[in-house]
Amino acid sequence: MKKQKTLVYKCSSCGREEPKWLGRCPECGEWNTLAETPVSAGKIENRRKETRGVPQILPLSAVDPMEGSRIGSGIGELDRVLGGGIMRRSSVLVGGEPGIGKSTLLLQAAACAETKGRILYVSGEESAGQLRLRADRLGLNDKKGCMERIEILSTGNLVEIENALNAIKPVLILVDSAQTLFSADAGSAPGTINQMKFCTFELIEWVKEHDAALLLTAHVTKEGFIAGPKTLEHMVDTVLYFEQNDKTSGLSGTVDCRFLRAAKNRFGSVDEIGIFTMSEQGLSPVEDADRLFLIRREGELPPGVATAAVLEGTRTILVEIQALTIPAKGAVSRVFSDKIDSGRVSRVSAALEKHLGLRLSDQDLYVNAAGGIRITEVGVELALACALYSARTGLVLPSDLVISGELSLTGEIRPVRRLAGRVKNALNLGFNSFLGPAPDQPIPELKAAADIKSAIKMIYGNSKEIKN
Question: What is the pTM of this model?
């Protein structure tokens, strides 16, 4: 008897299924992407009848605490972002632009992982010979035992990958990349949304059942987001993004920094940031980044430059904030800022105009953070306000001054976290003064200001008049 067939319409962009054809996909909004796809009804029934037995139910008190143990990656900056290491039975998705170092990071993590178990590196993009050349270039053959314990599988076929997993039972699985995985059961061409979701789900299920950990890379779109459905990010436990800055000449010389950020982390904080430098020997963690984003200069600072003390997770970093104001070229002023949120720049400039009478509404504002680091912490707002004031008036800020604080719309300077640690860090790096909000406990080296007007007076004194 002929098998019955059911028809669905799948979106080639996001994978959404509809019972009838639509011109526009309701999920992603793309036009003419729904295509007719036959699905075997018998196959659907077989999958529904599949069972793995009665699920094991345990009281929370009976769960072994060691199930929440971590595997050290051997790379301090990666462990910092992950919250202390790679959690067992978890999956980590690493996204980034082509050539930024995703494959290098995975290979170095495989070589340095602090585990005695077996490690499987699955590559659908490179052959075994290419991986060996990369390992030799990174100097992994000089590290005792690193090359021997990494086992290579160059394929994207899910069946072959699962057979290898069941044969060697690895503790750590690294997949490069999610877009190269394919399975005949997914019923679509390799690289599509359905293939990514299906194959990733099967690998996640395997590591949860076998007390292993999974790291896989993913490509990103031109907007910088991981290519594919958001469902993929919901499926994994941790989502990391690799970012790259422009090469800059700082106090440590010309550096090519890569930033590793967590957009999602079920087992740690998303506030931490990992900093790496890229060289011929691969990615090198930057553990002491205090002065990495300061520009080497002699003499006084130019107008529009302020030094800010910001927190990135548990680490204090000194960053040079640069501002430039020029008359608006059109009827409406514009804000150009990609490293600091442009909305924050607009709020700070509005507070300056309201409480200091400093006219910025007819100016185009350009704001930058030296070194290419993206800053989201509120403690940068007072330094940003001082940089904008300096750029608009032409008054130079003291070169030995570090600034930190949150600026409210009422002009008040609000407290920030770990202020004492920021002050101590700035003094250790040779800065003589620190401007910030009033602390709960007195700090002798801190110049405390209640609002933006008193902060400007502390910097320039009463003899300096505010220029419009």
Answer: 0.77
